[in-house]
Each structure stands twice: as C-alpha cells, then as structure tokens.
C-alpha cells in the first residue's frame, strides 16, 4: 500500500487563531462590553441544607443603580443537562442544597452597586440536617430531593455480563481491593462568564463561555419559555473547559432573565470562589474490585462496585455512574463481568464530567489492582497486561465495539522508551517506575437527548473570489477544534487551512454540533466537515472537467489549483474553478453530517460507553520519593497514545502534555475538599495544582492505527492520555517505597503514614477499609455477545 | 467613593482617566481603557493571568492600585508587538503551540518578556522559576518553556 500523501494533515501547524491569542485580541466572554450593559451578581447560600423561610428584595430594589432583582420565583421551571435529571432551579426555590447555591440575583449599573444590592437582600433560612458524605448518604437521613427520611440515593445500577460465579470458579487466584478517589475540579483559568441581551425584537442573544451551545439553547428555551427560534446562543472562545462548562448554568439563565427584565444587556462573570461552587468536577468514588486470575495472569472474572458522591444535583451523574463501570473491558478481555454502582446525593456542589468523565477513578483502581495481582502471581506489570489485552476489531463482554486498537504497540513503545524492564524493581530505594494503560471513547455514541438527527452538521459556502467559509457549531475550548476542522477542509480542497474563514459555535449561523464534550469533535464534526468539503470539491471538479474538456477522473485538487496532475497548462486557479462551478450550477454551498452507527447493546445502560472508536494509551511514570517527608517528585513521564492518525501533531502533543499534567495534579495534589459541607478552600491558593516547578519532562509517542471510520483515520486525544497517568504514579510510588496508597490524591501525609505502617511491620497500605453496605438488588443478567460465547 | 483623574502611560501612550480612587490597575486597563488583553483568573494574586509590566518589571495588576502606577510605564500584551509585527516571543508561542485556550497567554507573555529583558539566554530552570507564579491548565507548561527558549535564541 502506498501511504497517502497529505498537504496539511499530519504536520504540526500553529492554531488558526494563535495570532489573536498571543496579541490579546481573542475576545472571551468577560472581555465583551455592550452599550448600556448592566452587571449581574448572584447571592449564594451560606447553608449546606436549609429551607428558605423568607426572602425580601425591596431594600435592594430601592438602591440607586440597581435595575432589577430576581429570585427563584422568577425562574420556577427546572432544568438539567440530562432529560432524566431536570432537578435544578436557576435560583433556589424554597430550599438550598449546598453552600454556594444561587438564591437571588441583581442587575446594576456596575459591579460595586450590584454587590451592595446583594447585601440588601434579606433571606431567612431554617437549617435542616445535612448529608456530607457517601457514608452518611448510606444511612437514613433527611432527603435532599423530596420530603421525609431515607437514603439519599440518586440512582443505582447492577449489570452482569456472562456469569461471574462461573468465572471465579475457574480462577486460580482471587484478589479483592478497595480504592478511594477523592474528586477534583477543573479550575480552568477563565472564570465562567456570560453576556445576555434581550432585543426590542423579542430575540434573546447570549454570549457565553460554554462547551455546549446547543444544549444551552435547549435549556434557555425551556426555562425562559421562549421559542428556540427567538434565542441565539454564541459560544465565545472558552478559556479552558475540561468538562467544567458543559452544563447549562444558573448564571447564564439568570443573565438572560435579568436582560429580559431590564431591556438592557447584562453580564455575569463568576468570581473564582463562585467557580469552585459551580464545580461539576470529578466525582469522589469509593470502589471495590474483585478479580479472578489463572496462574498465568489471565483474567477469568471481575466484579466491580462503585459508590459515587454526586453532590446536590443530577447534572451528568447518571451517565457518570455508568461510566464508572463501562470502560474496564476496553483494555482487557474480561470473560465474565459484573458491575454494581450507586450515585448518592450530598449537600455539596454538584459533580459532573471532568476530563475522562467517570473513568479515571475506576482506571486508577483497576491498574493498581492489576499491579498488586501481578505481584501475587509472580508476574511483572507488563506481562499481566499483555496477557489480557483486547484484540483490535473485537466486541467486549458488555457489547462495546472495538475497531482500530494500538494498545499493544503503545505498551511496547513506552516500555522500550522508558527502559521499564531495566528499572522496575531494580532502582535504588526511593526511586521507582510505574506502568498503566487505558482507553477512551472518541465521542459518545448517543446524543444527550433522544433524537434521530445527525450528531454533527457542517456547512461550507464558497464565494466568487474563491473564499471558503466553514460553519460549525463546535466550540473551541482550547483543544483546537477550529484548527482541526480547517485542516480537514483545507486538505480536501487543496487550500491552506489558515486561509479559510471559520464561523463557529453560533446557533443563528451554524448548523448543529452537539458540543465539545466526550472527545467527539474531531471524529464527528470532522467527518461532517469531510463530507461537506468533498461535496464542494466534486462540484468544482465537475465544472472544471467541463471547462477543460476532460473527464473528472484525471483531475486533482491541490496547491490552490484544480486540474490534470503534472500538467500545469491543464489546470486553473481555485478562484477560477469556483467561478466555473457557480456559472454552471449556481451558488456554491454544501453540507455534510455525521451520525454514529447504531452500537448500543441489548440492555438498559448500554448507551453509556459506546463510541464509534476508542483511543488507547500507555504511560510509564518515574518518581523519586522522600521516605521521610512523603514528598513525591515525578522525574519523567512517557506516554504513548493511539491517535488513529494525527491530523496536527502539534495539537496532539499539546493534548497529551496537558492530559499528563492534569493527571499528575490529580494524582498528587488536587482535591475538591470540604469540612462537612463547606468548601475547604475555594481559591487557587488553597486548591493546589501543579506549577512550572512541579511538572517533569513528558515524552509523547504517537501510535497511528488509522481508524477506518475516523476522518483520515483520526481518533481522540483530549481525554485519553490523562487516564493512565494517575495509576502509573501510584504504581511507581509502590515500586519506589513498597507502599500502596489506594487513595487519590496521594499527598505526602498519606505516604508518611504508609511508611510508618510499613516500619511497624504492617502492609504499608493507606486507603479505605471497605465500601458502605448497599443492596444493589438482583443484577440485570446480560448474555455474552454471540462471538464471545465459549 | 472618591473619583480622581489619573495620568497613566500605557504602551507608550498617555491616558487621563477619571476613575475611583480604589481602582486596581487591572480594572483600569480592562474597564476604563478597554484593553481587555490583560486577563483575570482570581483577582487575588494567585494565578498570574493579569501580569503586566511596570517599568519592565512584572506585577500582578489585580493587586496593584491604578494610582500607584502613575509616573511609571505600563506595558500590556497589546504593547508587545512593535508596529504590528509580532515580537519573537509572540511568534514562538504561535509556532510551538504554547497557547491552547489562550487565557493565561497574555500573562505568560508578559512574565516571559520581563525575564528575557533581564536574562539573555535563560536556562530551563530559570524560565520555570520566572514563570512559576503563572498558572496554566491546558499545556502542562512544556511548550511554554520551549517557546521562551526559542524566543531567547531568536533575539527576544
């Protein structure tokens, strides 16, 4: 096979918007200012759980400069990102459920007047019993949603694929472990911000730092009771998302309502403290796992239990719950697999999706568990993994379709590059290496709300000067989606991607894309862009064939020309080709779309985890640990990632390095921590995250498997590379010190405790002893897919 | 609240602004002068996003009173490019992918520019130290260090 030659695909090219970024010209939401614009602020609950017994806004309204004050009564309709979890009010009605929940809002002539207005709002609360943890939620307490006493269970799941009892009978060795992942937050540098403007024509426009303009559009339609056709949502460049700007938010709805109330534009920008309360970050998850192995390390069965602390509302939580059980099977063949999970409500800011959405927690558990099992069996970490690897083009026991899969190559490459074999168990005390692997979805297989329409649509229009404009609702959240779409269209049309006009993330102008979440944009919007570009190219080629009196099959598009390959005299410049096409067939425009194939398995919950393709990663982390202070210093990280095909190697490396960084932060320091229900430190000083001084060199290795369904073979990279980093750190610490820290983040105090335990003759383990009792009921038994039956 | 007229030199231009006495330099730049290239991530001096130069020295504009900048030369990201030509530092950030979401970028550029004004060819450790007060959540910092090194070698 001759490798295809690409003009733009593959090479490391700067982002198309880099020029604006480095000159301060990128306009983020808070950079906007409109004539007559008011500043909105929200009053937030000081209680974790309380009834609102009185709320009086008259003094605030009387303050000069305050133009409007609203409360929960002004926005009585509930919303939520998932159709099954419509449990949020933009402003609390009757009850507050976490410290920091918005209760009322003010629009005023400036920020200071708005702040003084908030102080004049009188709210009386009657505190009620709080639920602060997974353990507490497992006992009967005052219900957070509903009345009376009970367990604060949001949702539970129990699925059994095959027959784990049989699988455990076939095992030579069975191991059980308990793990705790404490949860973290996104802490994007840009605080959430939105500007809303309700026009005299009855149309509402909102500019917001959101990853999901389409879903925000739907939420505004519902809560504001405005026809969707009268709402325009524009996603401004997102100053970091990581999943933290993927829900419809109170401040967006409130800004819109305040603008409708005042007839003036209203801007709300959250303070950093408010961002911590808005949260939607990584769920704390307590996990129990039991796995059966043959002597050679082959897995015979696995039983995985998860307990998620969801915070006060649903958000994406139902999906998160299933994600904690879905992807274990995408790296290892597990012939019999049982998953039980429960998500509870607590009186804390709602958790949601953060990079890896519900899968970094079980991946941490699984990869540490496998290392521990390997030690039991006298195997090394590489052997036990390779023994169980999924095969390319196979189906997992829970009906996930695996297509291209370069996991084996990823492992081989990181092991070789890091010298893992020469280092593991052989470095001096205090130094160690750890290995872990993972897989992630390239786009969720299903939209968030049921519909038969495409998951992504892209339109292209070409003007008479040859200028190409690409329209897509995909929001660039820093991952470079706009540049990726430009690369795809540029490649097809033979035009420099930097010369294309990109119109994105505007519900008035662009056809629907579901949003920048679940690592879906390159694959789904990319395929839609590819289809639209090919339609434009075909129309132009047909016209040029006619113009030159030749046939289409001899014509090529490239270098800004259309014509016969290798015969410059028989080719014409792109603008002339465009004009030839418009002369013959009229306006030159085309659309393309992408809909994922039907992939869901025959069971309830099968919509979560399916994806048209999976990326795969393997990481080796080398650490140096101080046994006295418990300080862990990461020396180096090697990360191999199966990207399918890199459309832009510079952006791919950037995602890998960023994912590694975020994984290291979660592994060693980041925690959204509370005292009871009160955030322990809602600031960037108290919420520890890695600085320039904390990050090691990262060696990125790209593995290209050319996925048959990806655009030019591409798969995701935004989320996958984070996943193996956290367990690889934990495994490296074990290699360095002989201690097992089964709780993330692995802070120095835990390492010191484990070292003391080891010195006293203990196992040197720090982590939870057990998971709470919970009756998951009878599992939904699902027969093993056809091809996997013995 | 007392308003006063401040005279400030920003990016080589004199501005006279009637503004509250307690205005921070960050607020004055963004709200009074509409120079929104300078960002904010915390307004408490924790993230470095609001870094600007005061007589060539990096300061956190969120913790600097505007009136204390009177009589000093303020440089913001908008003042980095001379005559519309990107500075080598800006060019290096572009070429090496040192900006992802771009939100921390203006602050990074200003802190890095101060470093390169005082150290001709800084080592990796010097760059990391100089920029350690600036947080980035996207890049993992590696490409930023590489961009600063490249800019140093290509004459700032």
Structural class of chain A, by secondary structure, is alpha+beta
Radius of gyration over C-alpha positions of chain B, nearest whole angstrom: 15 Å
CATH class of the largest domain in chain B: Alpha Beta
Counted up, domains of chain B total 2
Helix content estimate of chain A: 25-40%
Instruction: Name the helicity range of chain B.
Output: 25-40%
* Major beta sheet, strand line-up of chain B: 2-1-5-3-4
β content of chain B, as a range?
15-25%
Q: Write the CATH homologous superfamily of the largest domain in chain B.
A: Beta-grasp domain
Largest sheet of chain A: 7 strands, mixed
Quaternary structure: heterodimer
- Uncertain spans of chain A: none
Low-confidence stretches of chain B: none
Distinct helical segment count of chain A = 19
Largest sheet of chain B: 5 strands, mixed
User: How does CATH name the architecture of the largest domain in chain B?
Assistant: Roll
β-strand number of chain A: 36
Strand order of the largest sheet of chain A: 3-5-1-14-11-12-13
Distance between the termini of chain A: 37 Å
Please, could you describe this protein's structure?
- The complex is a heterodimer of chains A (790) and B (156).
- Chain A is built from 19 helices and 36 strands.
- The longest helix of chain A is centred in the C-terminal third of the chain and has 28 residues, at 521-548.
- Chain B has 156 residues and is of the alpha+beta class.
- Chain B has two domains: 3-79, Ubiquitin-like (UB roll) (Roll), CATH 3.10.20.30; 88-153, [2Fe-2S]-binding domain (DNA polymerase, domain 1, Orthogonal Bundle), CATH 1.10.150.120.
- Chain B has helices at 25-32, 88-96, 105-118, 124-130, 142-153, and strands spanning 3-10, 13-20, 51-54, 57-60, 73-75.
- Chain B has a five-stranded mixed β-sheet with strand order 2-1-5-3-4, sandwiched between helices.
- The chains are: A alpha+beta (790), B alpha+beta (156).
- The interface between A and B is large, with 57 and 56 residues.
